[in-house]
């Protein structure tokens, strides 16, 4: 039996542990800089901008077997918010039990209840198990779109005050 619920502060260490597990799965084991304190502040601080749901199971070794971490995005064309799923993770020993589907259905339900126009996420192109899972309930890639990102040195350089462009007002 499993229980799906909104995350509470006591869940933060388990969520962070699964974030580390996800980084290993995605072949970036040393990329996580997040800490318990940072995640706690972002989820439960004065003005949280991210949200999480967890699945508990009494049949697995760990009580929390999966999580979904998400935030709101906005469609200028639709004039309403949407949900962006940053991470979905289910512990390997709990996969196949419907936990990932329950988490995604909960976020879809939130989007529908609130009148949001979309629910979206990114998936690595080599992650066939996840791609097939998403396709199994009707999700598909956005044709013609590519995700771009500024991070690290490129972000620091481009975002530095000296990088201001002539004629561009802040």
Question: How is the topology of this model organized?
Answer:
Elements (H helix, E strand, L loop, with lengths): L1 E5 L5 H14 L10 H9 L6 E7 L6 E12 L4 E11 L8 H16 L4 E3 L6 H8 L16 H8 L11
Parallel strand pairs: 4-5
Antiparallel strand pairs: 1-2, 2-3, 3-4
Word description of this protein:
The protein is of the alpha+beta class and 170 residues long. The chain has one domain (2-140): Gcn5-related N-acetyltransferase (GNAT) (Aminopeptidase), CATH 3.40.630. Helix content is 32%, strand content 22%. The protein contains 5 helices and 5 strands, in the order βααβββαβαα. Strands 1-2-3-4-5 form a 5-stranded mixed sheet. A hairpin with a 6-residue loop joins strand 2 (51-57) and strand 3. The protein is globular, with a radius of gyration of 18 Å. Keywords: Acyltransferase, Transferase. InterPro entries: Acyl_CoA_acyltransferase, Diverse_Substrate_AcTransf, GNAT_dom. Residues 2-161 form the N-acetyltransferase domain. It comes from Arthrobacter stackebrandtii. Pfam families: Acetyltransf_1.
Taking pLDDT < 50 over at least 5 consecutive residues as the criterion, the unreliable ranges are: none
What is the second-level CATH architecture? 3-Layer(aba) Sandwich
Topology as a string of helices (H) and strands (E)? EHHEEEHEHH
Radius of gyration: 18 Å
Number of domain modules:
1
N-to-C terminal Cα separation, in Å?
53 Å
Say how many strands there are.
5
Largest sheet: 5 strands, mixed
Strand order of the largest sheet: 1-2-3-4-5
Mean pLDDT, rounded to whole units? 92
The CATH class: Alpha Beta
Proportion of residues in helical segments? 25-40%
The number of helical elements comes to: 5
CATH superfamily: Gcn5-related N-acetyltransferase (GNAT)
Tell me the CATH topology: Aminopeptidase
Q: Which percent range describes the beta-strand content?
A: 15-25%
> What is the general shape?
globular
Structural class: alpha+beta
């Amino acid at each position: 039996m499993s229980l799906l619920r909104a995350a509470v502060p006591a869940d933060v260490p388990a969520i962070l542990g699964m974030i580390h597990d996800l980084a290993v799965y995605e072949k970036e084991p040393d990329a996580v800089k997040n800490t318990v304190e940072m995640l706690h502040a972002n989820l439960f601080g004065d003005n949280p901008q991210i949200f999480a749901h967890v699945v508990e199971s009494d049949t697995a070794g760990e009580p929390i077997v999966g999580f979904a971490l998400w935030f709101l995005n906005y469609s200028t064309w639709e004039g309403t918010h949407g949900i962006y799923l940053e991470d979905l993770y289910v512990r390997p020993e709990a996969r196949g039990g419907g936990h990932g589907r329950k988490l995604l259905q909960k976020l879809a339900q939130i989007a529908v209840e609130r009148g949001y126009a979309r629910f979206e996420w990114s998936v690595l192109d080599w992650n066939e198990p996840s791609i097939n899972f998403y396709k199994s309930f009707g999700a598909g890639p956005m044709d013609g779109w590519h995700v771009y990102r500024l991070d690290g040195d490129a972000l620091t350089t481009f975002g530095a005050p000296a990088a201001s462009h002539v004629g561009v007002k802040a």
